[in-house]
Please model this.
Amino acid sequence: MPEVLAIKEEEKQLIQREYRKLLKAIKSDMDDKDQKMIRMAYELAVEAHSKQRRKSGEPYIMHPIAVATICAEEIGLGPTAIVCALLHDVVEDTEVSLADISKQFGTRVARIVDGLTKLDSAYNAESPQAENFKKVLSTLVDDVRVVLIKMADRLHNMRTLGAMPRHKQLKIAAETSYIYAPLAHRLGLYTFKTEFLDLCMKITDPENYRDIAKKLAETKRSREEYIQEFINPLKEQLAELGVDYYVIGRPKSIYSIWNKIKFKGVPFEEIYDLFAVRIILNVPPEKEKLFCWQVYSIVTDVHTPIPERLKDWITTPKSNGYESLHTTVVGPKGRFVEVQIRTDRMNEIAERGFAAHWKYKGINNQPDVYERWLDSVREILEDPHSDAVEFLGDFRANNLFNEEVYAYTPKGDMKILPKGATALDFAFNIHTDIGYYCASIKVNNRLVPMGYKLQNGDQVQIKTNKNQKPTEDWLKMVVTGRARSKIRSAMKDERRKKGEFGKEALERKFKHVKVDFEDAIDKVVKYFGYTSRIDFYYDLTKEETSINEIFKHFRPEGGKLVEIPEEVEILEPVPTEVKRPRKGKAKPRLLINGEPAEQFEFSFAACCNPVQGDPIFAFLTSNAGLKIHRANCPNATNMMVNYGYRLMKAEWILTTDSTFVADLQIIGIDDGPGVIERLTHQISTLLGLNIRSFSIAGDEGYFEGKVSLLVANTDQLTIAIRALQNLENVSSVSRIE
Ligand code: MN
Model:
């Protein structure tokens, strides 16, 4: 944060205006004391941040005010959270201490601010992201508001990322899509999740983002007209119901439209479910279901429904608490339209999940979904064996399941599991011990393998046996985080027991050379690249690592182990003749962190094949020098999140004398022999490009080809794609990512 000039008069007015907007946005009731607290927090924050500015140049205080406004307006949080949001960066960035805050605002506010500060400092460290994530979740369990405010903080930072340097934008976007978007999803903050993913795409894939945004804007009018046309014939009957309602037709997010284009290969113009028509009713809780079904009846009287698309999440809410009645009907002009019928309350829960959940607790038997989830988070956090990296993996894996499957115990209790869950998952879901000792499973009275995938309505019966215990293979037969972490911790117990022998041998040796065990052990474990002592002891027992090996790298000195310095290896720059990353006339030129790349050993990653002109970054590998990846490489997120400190900024020095490999997928209609000739003719003769490889497969009048081209830059690639697209019978050409 650059330290800057004092705040100007017009800026003061702007700050006050934003503050008044914040006050207006607070929806919950406030007494005098609440109002005074907010005022105090505001004044303290203004004073504390008075010498700071954001990267964009605006006074820093604009940020905490904006975060507080998001908390009030978009999450619906109350006065305490607003106070905390205003103070969220004060302890970290200014002279004000936590004790000051505790004195002025009480211990509750201080605890939340402390949680927020800790989260922030976690991100500055070069610790693996998984560890940080564990911290995020611990604060979540402590006071949910910490994480909700953090979400608002992240959202505002993402919205105002433009002023940051490109490589920072990429890193923040990666972290957001890796951690914050799934967490927002899990907390049911769907509007946040959607905006996070859209903003990430805006950074990693700006061209496609802008393209879709533009098309959405252009088609807005006709969309609105269509919704009117759809709803007009229903109006009379809806009025007869005598309840307040409103209709919206918000389009899908840019990110999800792009996914559809990418994975289903449909052009924007042909996506007919760009939006759903949502009818939202305002009715008392006890009449919700009745009225929703009446509206369903009205809609389907006018527009023909497609029966298999009816989904009733009012009678059986999704496990994340989502309630709504969905159907797809044939609307005007024969277009399929998804209709969502729900009440205000359901809508709020659908958009704000967790945050709205508290407000409606206990109404209409809403299951305590979030409490149940928090319990499971707590359970995993308290598990001393849980490894942060595995933990994050599990969390993400389970989030990817949007659908669920319902199965029953023999007594008829319903269990909701993610789609794809197995019979063994079911066992662990009932109770840890039932999982551990699971010996055989019957589904609908038939014996099934443990890895049997559950179907809706299955009745599952489990036989246990005290002599049974989990094995490594079990990990392949479960998908839920709970089952995985339980099996893993059982495996670790096993390893720990076996590792005792190695540990004792090591203790004897250290004692013999008079080295303090506790002081030395972690050094050694880390040196040999282990993440836990248990694994190290285990390998010692199995003699995969030997005690002698330790003393090749360490010597005892004054009761401690001292690392023996290794001979420093000086890396000679690799001559380009020997190791050329690709065949071209010259090695492509790059800037790494602003400096000419010639001094580094670098090559282009095979996972994404960057072409001159692509947005790129450099990643320092442990044995192959720098690898250059595309910013939207499928592995980018993982690298940025887990090894952010190895990332370097990379830029092209544009030249025309290098060539790059670009892989294209071409899909089209196969109308007999000659397809290959026409494609290769277009590429080599007309465009003058070299083809490195070409493969084609066809089936029932349809072909799919993969061609590797040598191009100079992205412009040339774009021209090639366009030229191929223009060929008759070619329906789509896309670059393989
Ligand atoms: Mn902040």
Observations:
- The chain has five domains: 9-202, 213-360, 490-563, 590-652, 660-735.
- The first strand starts at residue 244 and ends at 248.
- The chain has a mean pLDDT of 82.
